[in-house]
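[User]
Um, tokens okay?
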Amino acid sequence: MSTTFGTPTSWHALRVSAGDGATDALEAILLDVVQPWAAHALTQGTVESWALERPSAGAAPPGLLIGLRGGAGDTLDKPLDELGALITQALAGHPAGQVAPSDWPSSSGLPAGYLAASTAVAVPLVRATRSRPKRLQAATGLLLAAARATGADRIGCAHWLRAYACSLTTPAETTAARDAAEAEFHRNEAEWLRRYDRADAEIGSPATGLGDWHRQLTGVWAQLGRTYGAGPEDAHEPFRELAAATGRQLGLSPAEQAQAAWLISLAVLGGPREPFFADGPSAPDRRFHEDSKYVGSRLLDQRPDLVQSETAGRWQPAREEALVVLPRPELPGPHAPAFADVLLARRSGYGSYRGPVTLAELSTLLYYSAAVTDVKRMSPELSYSVRPYPSGGTRYPLQLLLYCHDITGLARGTYRYDPDAHALRLLSGADISADLRRSAPATDPRVTTPPKAGGNIDAAECPLWVFTVADLTYQRLHYGLRSYRLVLQETGHLAQNLALVATWLGKSTVGLSGYYDDAVNQLLGVDGVDSAVLYLHVVGVTQDA
């Protein structure tokens, strides 16, 4: 399969349309006219290859773009006229139907070989899956094959699938797609786990259609790796574009493709789930507690692994924009409350969260809670940074992300805190306050029962949201099963700092662990697999609700 990516593809094309609401008629033409004609033309050598491109489902008006390449003498005028006449005849019952020669989109740098091979896979699936649910199921298998083609293990496949889902459409549509995927998966969990097992087995068998497609995709991935030689990450974006093209050929919208990717990612990570409150020796928390215990007789197996890389398993944002260097933190004044008074005054704050919170106060909160404040030297060759809370192995697997909705002196947006530079790095300027409120029952005004344990939280005008993100894989590489205990402990250390410094500043805060995990992860651009939000805090000035 040729995979020269980014170069113009020489297709001679026909564009077919039949007016609004004619998707079924166009698919009938594709299956009853175009595919049989193309199969015969390929056999006769009239054309060298053919490909299908179509607008995303829901686009107006729906249409097909049929591309032909090569053939006997490379003269395609006659084949195009012949196919056009057959399509025109099939469109006779559609007053808005049109077929006309067309240029292939100049924006498409998709490889000709890939488009032809993908068409050969997608069109039979269109024939076999006339309902949307069945087609969505078929798409999950193709996406799993694509994820596996990158050489990823199961965790890596889930990471790839979720990154793919988030790359396809708007955050709002991705949220709706994830919600639909979660509802479908948890409604039919056993069936989706069986589908995953079947797809996984087929991918491992080259004699199956899915196995052959996986084999071809593996070759594509290898070629992209050679083309984008700076590193495998550089190949992911074009590879996602290829997967999206296959989804379009199936007639799926970006939101439907995102739903399919999220669905199969849940199955990749899944297993038969125990009821949420079920207890017993096999309960996941009981099992984890036992399996993660240190035992003297296993010391050699459980000793921390000396990982050389400081970046393996670390979450890296897709992009960072402006750097905001924070002002020097405020020092305690003569009238600052004593430490004992701060300890006694700390409360989880309920009510309506408002401002003001200034940039100087934010700087103080972050510096005394989480900044690198010193360097400890163990020897001339060995030193490590020190923060205001302890960390297992001084690895500091936690990162702080902030949504600053109304901080005096700072543009609204989502930021990552850089503890070394005591600075903020802008990730996005989008207003996500409404989505954040809906991501936790305690802050969601739609949730009225059961009663909220500590009281109501009105976060509509909350000036500051703080998220503790744990780089789970980063810590696991060093401590294995023990690592999850360590990141939870460290999250608590950091949370207490945030609560006490906020109290010292005269602000209210409350830590929330009851939130919809992947909803928050998605809003922040965290995959929820290798790295995940473990705790969130709202910070501001409260008024009684």
DSSP finds 18 helices and 17 strands in the chain. The longest strand covers residues 531-543.
